[in-house]
Amino acid sequence: MKIKRYGIMGGTFDPIHFGHLVAAEEARAVLGLEYVFFVPSGRPPHKKERPITKAEHRYLMTVLATATNPSFKVSRVDITRPGYSYTVDTISAFREMLGPDCELYFITGADAILQILSWKDVDRLFASCYLIAATRPGYDLSQLRASFGASWQRYSDKIKTLEVPALAISSSEIRRRVAAGEPIRYLLPESVVQYIYKHGLYGAHRQVKGCI
Ligand code: NAP
User: Fold this and answer.
1) Which strands, in side-by-side order, build the sheet including 159-163?
2) Residues in contact with ligand 1 (CB, 6 Å cut-off)
3) Given this model, what pLDDT does residue 207 score?
4) Per the CB 3.0–4.6 Å rule, which of 20, 39, 44, 102 could disulfide with 4?
């Protein structure tokens, strides 16, 4: 019997954009995933000092962005779990939900994976899932390998990279553009653009430069 595979797309999604959606769709096609579960972080462990948008806004934008793809689902597991959103706990929750007889692929940005050796229970994490590092165009893969140092041999079988040209889009650039009154259309789904302006996120003003 063919082993079922599931993707778990972890990120802050502040806001979600087409780069994330293309990365998830590409992973689904390349790996033959049954579903990709988008999991907006509740309290990202490494952003203790930096303010992030309320989880409920990030969750609702993720729901809007993924609504038309039947292979995409959104999970509240990191938002409802108290404390910091450690990935090892996220994977445990999915393992419990989906059972032991499936493969789990945690998909996130390659820059996030650079820090993975400092994540909670990293051995248990690697024992329970594969890690998919989505890279932006021109990303230097040697830095990923270098970040593991002597541990590379131990974990390299569980890490795969996925180049995603659409990841030239970034959440930080979208936030900057909104605050500066620059257009963001076509960088993210229209429903999310409207949500950002309706709720005044990222210092949004109704007036976008160059629009009448
Ligand atoms: P981040 O530091 O905000 O992002 C790092 C880079 O990866 C950014 O360039 C970001 O681009 C990109 N990125 C983030 N998520 C992505 C995705 N799903 N697909 C493609 N690119 C992505 O990282 P983060 O979003 O806070 O954390 C990523 C995931 O790692 C989350 O699920 C988080 O909970 C987990 N994490 C766990 C631990 C731990 O267990 N100790 C520690 C850190 C992170 P954009 O800004 O455009 O998204």
Assistant:
1) 72-74, 36-40, 4-11, 102-109, 130-135, 159-163
2) 9-12, 19-20, 23, 41, 44-46, 85-87, 107-109, 111-112, 119-120, 134, 167, 170-172
3) 60
4) 102
